[in-house]
Each structure stands twice: as C-alpha cells, then as structure tokens.
Amino acid sequence: MKRIFSHPKALRKVATHYCPGCGHGIVHRLIAEVVDELRIRQRVIAVAPVGCAVVAYHYWDFDGCEAAHGRALAVATGIKRFRPENIVFTYQGDGDLAAIGTAETIHAANRGENLTVIFINNAVYGMTGGQMAPTTLSGQKTSTTPSGRQVSLTGYPLKISELLAQLPAVRYVERVSVHSPQEVMRAKKAIRQAFINQIDNLGFSLVEVLSACPTYWYMSARQAMDWVRDVMSKEFPLGRIR
Amino acid sequence: MIERIIIAGSGGQGIMLMGKILAEAAMLDNLHVTWFPTYGAEVRGGAAYCMVIISSEDIPSPYIEKADTLIAMNEASLLKFRHRLRSRGLLLMNSSLISKSIKTNASLKVYAFPFTEAASRLGNIRVANMVALGIYIAKRGIFNKQIILSIIERIAPAQKRDLIEVNRQALEEGMRLVR
Amino acid sequence: MGRLAESKTLMSGNEAIGEGAIRAGCDFYAGYPITPQNELTAYMARRMAEQQRIFIQAESELSAINMVLGAAAAGARAMTSSSSPGISLKQEGISYLAGCQLPCVIVNIMRGGPGLGNIAPSQSDYFQATRGGGHGDYRCIVLAPDSVQEAHDLMMLSFELADRYRNPVILLGDGMLGQMMEPLKLAPFNSLKRGKSKQWALTGCLGRQPNVIKSFYMQEGQLEEFNRALQGKYKRIQMQQQRWEELYISDARVILVAYGTMARITRSVVRRLRQRGERVGFLRPISLWPFPQRAFRRIVERRPRANLLVIEMSYGQMVEDVRLAVEGRLRVEFLGRSGGGIPSQEEITRATARCRRR
C-alpha cells in the first residue's frame, strides 16, 4: 500500500504547548516536512525567538539555538557566516522580528545574509498575555490597547515585509496564511522556496505567515480562522511581495 | 636615562610620524619606549600632538606631564605646551609659523628655525617635520642619521620611493642648520 | 646604547590585541565603531580578510554581541570589542553567552563615564566587568593587562580560557593602553585544530543527536540545578585562575595595589621609593575575576601589620574586592581619580607617606 501521509522525521513526536487553533503547530510541521523533503535535516540549524515559539527547538529533531528577544537574525548571521555549508533559519514572531528586533531584521536583510526567515504574524503578543504587537490592527483590542488600537497614538500596523522588499539584497518575500487547507499548501510552497533559495546561495528570503491567536483575539478557533480570511488578510494582503 | 618628547602641531604636519620614527629608533636600540597620540573627536585641521618617552627603564605612563623636549611646529602648539617643558629643557620651534614676539622661558635651550621654509626650498612643504627631526637628532645626539634613514626607507610606501630622497635631504638640512 | 632589538614591532595596544586574537586563532569578529578602540576594529577588518576569516561591522553593539553568540554556538573562536558605553549595550548578550555557556572574548577599552562621558582613559567599568553586568547569577573571567605586550599575550590566554571553561572572557584595558604604542614581541600562531573538540557546537546533526544551545529552563528546579552547575564551574575557575604580579612584599610596611595602566604608574613609584630604602610593596591583580584573593590572604599571614593602598582610575571599585579579601584584618586606604584624571606619581607618593604614618 502506498503511504500518502506520515509524521515528518524532522518533527519530534511530542505534544506542543500551543493553544487550540494556534498557527504555530501548523507552521512547525510545514517546516519539518520541507526539511525532510529537501533532505537537509542533518544540515539545518534553527534559531528560535522569544515569544510563544521560544522552545520551538524542542519540537524539531535538528540542531537549534536560542536567541535573546529580537536578536535571532544577528545570531543566525553569526552561525551562517561561520558555517555556510549549514542551512540556517530563524523562526520569529511579530514582536521579535518587527518591534524589538527591527534593526537586526533590516540590517540582516540589507546585507543579503543567505538566511531563511519564517515570520509568524498573529497581530498580538501571545506569550506575555495579549498585548499590542506592531502588527495589531487598527481598533483591535489587546491588554495594552483596551479600547482598541488607536493609530493616532500607537501608529499603524507595521508592514515589515513590504519595507524589507525595498532592499536590493533581499531575494524573496512572500506573505501566506494558514487559515485553510488551500492556504496551508500555499504556505508550504513558499517555505520550501525560501529554503531552496538558501541552498542555492541566493540570499535573504522571508515568508510571513498570518497565523491565528484565538486565545488573545478572544475568539473560538473557527472564528479566528474566519477573521484571518475576512479581516487580517485585508490589512496584510497575501501573495508574493518580492 | 629618560627622554620625554612632546611633538605638537596641526593635522597634516606629520606629527604622529615624527613620533613613530623616534619610537622605532628607540626600539631598535633596545630601549624602553612609548608613543602616545592625541585622540579626539576632530579629524581635520585640529591640534595634533604625540608624546614619546624613551628610557633605559620601565615607563610608568605614556602621558607626559613634564617634558625634556618640545618640538612645536606651529604657534598654537607652542602656547599649549610651553609650560610643560622642564627648566633647561630643549625647545625646537618652527619660526615659519610662530611669531617672534612670543616669549619663552629664559632657562630653556631654544632653537628656532623656519622648518616650513626650509622644506619648501627642498620642494616639498610636507618634509618640515624631517627638518625638525634633523635638528633634534643633531642636538640630542641619542640617534644617528643612519638609523633614522633606515626607518624612513622601511616605512615609505612602495609606490612613493622618491619621497625617501627628499626626506633624507630634509633630515640633513635640519642637521646642517644647527651645525 | 643597547644591542639591536630582535624581531620586535612597534604597535599600539589596540593593534596588539587584534594581532593577539589573530594568532590565537580567532575565527570571527563582529563589532561597532567607538573611540578609543577604533584601531582594533579597523585592524581586524584588514587582518581577518587577509586570513580569510570573518569580520562583520554590525549595525549596533547589541547585534555584534549576538553575532558573536551565533558564531560561538557554531563552534567558532569569536570575539567583539568596544568601549564602555558600547559594552553597556552588550550586557544582554553577555548574560546570554554566560547562560548558554558559550566561549567568547570581549575586549573593553574603557573610557570615562557615566553616560557618554568622554574618551579619556578610565577604570570605572570594574564593577560592570567583575560583577556580571547583565542580569542573572553569572561571572565573566576578567583579565587586565598593563602593557601592550601583556595585552597581546593575554589575548592568547583569553581564547584558551574561554574554550576551556565555555565562558565569556573580558579583556579589560583603557584608552591609554589601547592608544599607546610600545615595542611588541609577537606570539607564535596557535596551531590548534579549531572547532574540532567542541562536541556541543551546532554543526548540523549529522551522525549524532541534535544539539541545542539555550539558557532557558522552565521546569521546576531545572534552573536552580543549572545555576548550581554554573557555580561549580565558577568555583573551579576561582581555584585555578587567580593571577597576579607582586614585588617586595616580604618586608613591606605599605603595599600599593593597582591594575592595568594604573599599575604601571604605581610600580614605578614603588621602585623609586625602594631605591630610597622605603619598605614599600606592590601587588597587581592580573585576573580581576577571579580576584587574586590568595595573594591577599598571604599578605594577611606574612605582613599582618602592613597597610594597603589601592589606587584606581575610578572613585573606588576594586578597593571593595581588596577589603573583602583581607576581611578587615588590614587597613585599606584608597586613592582614586576618574573622568579622565589619573593619579600622578606625586599624588601616589604623598598618599603612600600618609599610609606609612598610620
């Protein structure tokens, strides 16, 4: 009998700590599938962020490194420059990549570091209890914007992918989502491309994944998926940016 | 034996290089030596000075509070450092850029010559520092001409070998001035 | 005149540190410009390229130290350098390096503070270097050279200790040491096969279980256990790595204590007073952490009536370690200036005379 579905080798058989409906588990698995398909499990090194995915290295079955909040791309730069034969990727949330780590993000991209970045945008800070993220939508309620994000006080949702796409050394930027099976398949394709680019030495590649946080959107998992489709992806349009 | 030299002027006069040549010469003589530069926020046109200490013993600090020698390449640096000279210290002044009216302590051994004019007579205004160095080695007698020339030859950039000759002439001109 | 010096080079402290790193087998340098250590960054830019090793001018000190963390995690001999305000920025990364037990070398060419301060030499980062500086219960090995030669030689030792203990090592100098030139005898190139013995390093999990580099321990008791292990390592370092220089202790009535640039000036005062027949001794901590307590315990035993005079380019930081080391059994006096001021030979001589009378 032909096997059409199995547990990826690069994903450990352990339960994650993520909430029901959270996108992290899906994206972790997509990365593991891509790593298996590209046969790079023994070459790959992950850099985990500070945020909900802080222990991502416990879920993958390959080498991993922690980074201080926001510093993942500096750490990844150090690893990749010393070991160019390895495949190095960062996995970062919106706070890590687009708030506290903005400088590291922009400069790693501008140097054209040959790295793969998986950027999880869920428009809120999950780990610390639902505070405003740089990508929080206008009017969205969080524990630090209790009456909804007011752009006059806190700025607009930051479209870091569009900003990065301006830089000449950036090879590839695509925004995807994991709110439906079709989108999950598209997301996997983009993640695969971002890894292939690194294998081919093509430079900085980033995939932004819109991901649901039912817990701090104060929604059911189902409502959260619909909200990504109907609201969030209007603010953050899906598709190839560079 | 200890010799504490302050070399001062403005950026572009080759102040740091003079100090480094003396420091190299001292090193080749197996003496203790320190060289200490100005390091400031101004990059161009500001005051430049360096401090060189040559000693037969350990040198405590490379910073000079009382100098045995001051080589003043312009007026501002003379005014800034003249009070640092010990009595009976050696003062070499570039009279091309220092007005005659400036008083110096009577106890000093003063040699005032137009370094800059001497250098332009040789065809390169930038070797005024070597004129001063020639006067210095002639008066202090701690290094001979050959050692200084060998250092200049070693540090001259390969594409500018012709500079060695004019530097040698300037050094000799300085020695001649005080003969 | 003396005989011709053999194979010496005139180098500034900053360059000598850079060349020391090159010869120690430094694979990776990341830094951000700041006075008075810019010559070191520029030297590394040139020499690392010549040696086909890695040099990165980072976008900030924060980024530089985290690049060092990544390279160290991947098994490199990695370093960064900066001066006081820049070192403050690196503290987060240094805490993580200590927590991840990663080897690296951090050079601090100290300048005056607090805040932007000035660019004059200073020793006011002693607390920051020896107490940790960042958050958490950790220590960095801190070595303090007092000459261009020693700065060069201690770079070799710094990389060795960093690897041996998997711990950050700080080379603590000041603007004067960084800027001054002195004749230097270059150390031989370290011939070790780099990265080979680091079984813990991230190399990709070919033929082994995956490695993880982290300082994060959330399960109950885990972090305490980890901290106990760290403390065990620090104890070992304290036992094995106390380093100092001492002169004329055996009959001294007053013992002058100083490190780095301040020790050069102090040593020459001590020599001069000795020539006059005064019973003055000299002690120079070379390792600031671990602090050479053994040297002070011996003084307490052998010279129980001696007075100590600690001299610093700060308003009193190392003096606290001296007081802890002698546990109140000897009188400890202090002379210090800061913000660009350096205690002069005359000031030291006068302070020594005051100590003697007591």
Structural class of chain C: alpha/beta
Euclidean distance between termini CA atoms of chain C: 44 Å
Question: How many distinct folded domains of chain C?
Answer: 2
Order of helices and strands of chain B: EHEEEHEEHHHH
Principal-axis shape of chain C: globular
User: How many beta strands in the DSSP annotation of chain B?
Assistant: 6
> For this structure, what is the CATH class of chain B?
Alpha Beta
Radius of gyration of chain C: 21 Å
Based on CA atoms alone, the radius of gyration of chain B comes out at 15 Å
In CATH terms, what is the architecture of chain B?
3-Layer(aba) Sandwich
Give the overall pLDDT of chain B as a whole number. Answer: 92
The assembly state of the depicted protein chains is heterotrimer
Strand content of chain C: 15-25%
- Into how many domains do the coordinates of chain B divide? 1
Strand order of the largest sheet of chain B: 2-3-1-4-5-6
* Largest contact between chains: A-C, 36 and 41 residues
Low-confidence stretches of chain B: none
Beta strand % of chain B:
25-35%
Strand order of the largest sheet of chain C: 3-2-4-5-7-6-13
CATH topology of the largest domain in chain C: Rossmann fold
Structural summary, described in words:
The complex is a heterotrimer of chains A (242), B (179) and C (358). Chain A has 242 residues and is an alpha/beta fold. Helices cover 36% and strands 16% of the residues of chain A. Chain A has a single domain (24-237), classed as Rossmann fold (3-Layer(aba) Sandwich). The longest helix of chain A is centred in the last third of the chain and has 19 residues, at 181-199. The relative contact order of chain A is 0.16. In chain B, strand 4, helix 2 and strand 5 form a beta-alpha-beta unit. Chain B has a single domain, classed as Pyruvate-ferredoxin oxidoreductase, PFOR, domain III (Pyruvate-ferredoxin Oxidoreductase, domain 3). Chain C is α/β, with parallel strands linked by helices and 358 residues long. Helices cover 42% and strands 20% of the residues of chain C. Chain C has a seven-stranded mixed β-sheet with strand order 3-2-4-5-7-6-13, sandwiched between helices. In chain C, strand 11 (254-257), helix 9 (260-275) and strand 12 form a beta-alpha-beta unit. Chain C is globular and about 70 Å long. Classes of the chains: A alpha/beta (242), B alpha/beta (179), C alpha/beta (358). At the A-C interface, strand 1, strand 2, helix 2 and helix 4 of A face helix 3, helix 4 and strand 9 of C.
